[in-house]
Design a protein that fits this description.
The longest helix has 15 residues, at 106-120. The protein has a single domain (4-184), classed as Gcn5-related N-acetyltransferase (GNAT) (Aminopeptidase, 3-Layer(aba) Sandwich), CATH 3.40.630. The relative contact order is 0.16. The protein is globular. 24% of the residues lie in helices and 30% in strands. By secondary structure, it is of the alpha+beta class. The chain has a seven-stranded mixed beta sheet, with helices on both faces. The protein binds coenzyme A. Coenzyme A binds next to β4, α4 and β5.
Length: 185
């Protein structure tokens, strides 16, 4: 196994990150559009961390300024804004590691580096929409304990059922859920 290195993401990482995240989360260009936009907004309103091996991106995490789900919904946002009044809240929108490199703490390192990068900006809390597949698989749930603290706002059933992009996991009517958490940084 080649050595894995980590670095801050740059606008020119957009294609590699979208291709990796598209293959591991959802492939629809509609789903990937905000991710593409985020890369073009680094550093002002976007943040990314890339894991590389052999010159290839094998892991990526991305965050954007403000509260945003993947599908434009707003559940819990009013409550969050009330809980953290006036704060510069960010959203960790995606994290993925190539299957060949999973289970080696690369996701943990990407996540911890993202938390640190947001903290370095002065951000105190970040929201994350954890995708809970219809069979209950929610790998990002295993990462949140790396934050100094977190609060779960709840699990939203059938969160993606009316999305304009198809679910690559359900291949039909989507019964995946989202667990919404706010992380302390
Ligand atoms: C989430 C993801 C990035 C984690 O990457 P990773 O490099 O495998 O993560 P790590 O090796 O750092 O493991 C993180 C935790 O998950 C656990 N874990 C990893 N693989 C596991 C497995 N197959 N079964 C059970 N637990 C597992 C690890 O033990 C670790 O927990 P710990 O800190 O308590 O020891 C990766 O699973 C992934 O890309 N998933 C698909 C994309 C996705 O769903 N992204 C999240 C969208 S919200």
């Amino acid at each position: 196994m080649q050595q894995v290195t980590f670095r801050q993401g740059r606008p020119e990482d957009s294609d590699a990150a979208c291709s990796l995240i598209g293959s591991q989360i959802l492939s629809s260009p509609l789903f990937l559009k905000p991710l593409k936009q985020l890369f073009s907004q680094i550093p002002q309103n976007g943040e990314a961390v890339i894991a590389q091996s052999g010159g290839k991106a094998i892991g990526a995490a991305a965050a954007r300024r403000g509260l945003a789900y993947s599908n434009g919904k707003t559940d819990f946002f009013t409550e969050m804004q009330g809980d953290f009044p006036g704060e510069d809240l960010w959203t960790i929108i995606d994290i993925a590691v190539s299957p060949d490199f999973r289970g080696m703490k690369i996701g943990s390192e990407l996540f911890s580096r993202m938390l640190q990068a947001l903290k370095d900006r002065g951000c105190r809390h970040a929201m994350m929409e954890i995708w809970v597949r219809s069979n209950g698989w929610a790998p990002a749930r295993n990462l949140v304990h790396l934050a100094p603290g977190f609060r779960s706002y709840g699990i939203l059933d059938d969160f993606y059922i009316d999305d304009p992009f198809p679910c690559d996991f359900c291949h039909g009517e989507c019964h995946c859920k989202a667990e919404v958490v706010v992380l302390d940084l």
